[in-house]
Each structure stands twice: as structure tokens, then as C-alpha cells.
Amino acid sequence: MKSSWNLAYGHDRQGNPATGSLKTLIDAVRAGAPARVRIDYAEEGPPIYRDVAALWIKDGHVYAQNSTVISAAFQSVYVNGDLATVADTYEKDGLRFLDNPYYYFEICSTRGDVDKSRWGIADQKLRRRNQGKFAIEWFVQAEV
Asked: Does the pTM of the predicted model rise above 0.90?
């Protein structure tokens, strides 16, 4: 069998339904379907797809903890001298790792809420934590 990612539900920044059905998403989560989200960061940067590591359902909403990623950004300037030299042939504004990397975690919900946490790789200390509201599309995997 082959599996496919299907858009189950989408909402705007305030958590208002935009596409699909929250019930469809909740039913898929209850049935054990793997999930993926597309978070539209709007003015903060381009949208990103993240695989979901854990899911919760509470008070009629779905909460997802996204898998760990290492910090990366679309930026052309590096700040740490020779250690951060980038080849002249590399895309000027391409996606690249940050000089002083951190682990990046998120929890998002069908309310539009996203809690972001960043922890230094070298020192294991909290670097930054912030929250925001974003449009999110929720995909579930189905056997076809």
C-alpha cells in the first residue's frame, strides 16, 4: 500500500475555519493517523511544513508538538568570521544553518496559537521563547 498526505483542516491566524473540517482532523488523530502541519509565518518568514511528533485533543481542539529542528534561516550575512565562510557558488539568500545554532521546538493548536522555544546546542540554555498566532493547515496521512 501507498500512503498519501491529505489536507484535513485549515484555519486562519485567529483559528477561524478556512478549509476542511476540524471534526475530520480530530477523527483522524483519534484513529492514530500521522500528522503534518504547514504554518504560515506571514511577515516573519516563509511557510514551513513540519512533521508532528505528538498530538493532543483537548476541549475540541488539536494541539501538536513539532519535531526538533536545528536553527536555519534564509540570510546572506554570516557573523562569526572565517568559520562561517560560505562558498561563492552557494545561493546568496539560500537556506543555511545559523552560526550559533539552537534546537527549535514548537507547539501549535487549531486555535492558531504557536508557542516557540529555542535552546542552545552548545550550552543547553533557553535562548528565546515567544508565542504568536498563525494560519495553519493540518495534513493527515492515509493509506491509498
From this structure: no
pLDDT tens per residue across all 144 residues of the chain = 667 999 999 999 999 999 999 999 999 999 999 999 999 998 888 899 999 999 999 999 999 999 778 888 876 665 555 555 667 787 877 788 877 888 999 999 999 999 999 999 999 999 999 999 999 999 999 864
Q: Report the DSSP beta bridge partners of residue 12.
A: none
For residue 110, report the phi and psi dihedrals to the nearest 5 degrees: -70, 0
Contact 38, 137 (CB under 8 A): yes
Provide the residue ranges of all domains of the chain, joining segments of one domain with +: 3-72+95-143
DSSP H/E element including 69: strand 69-70
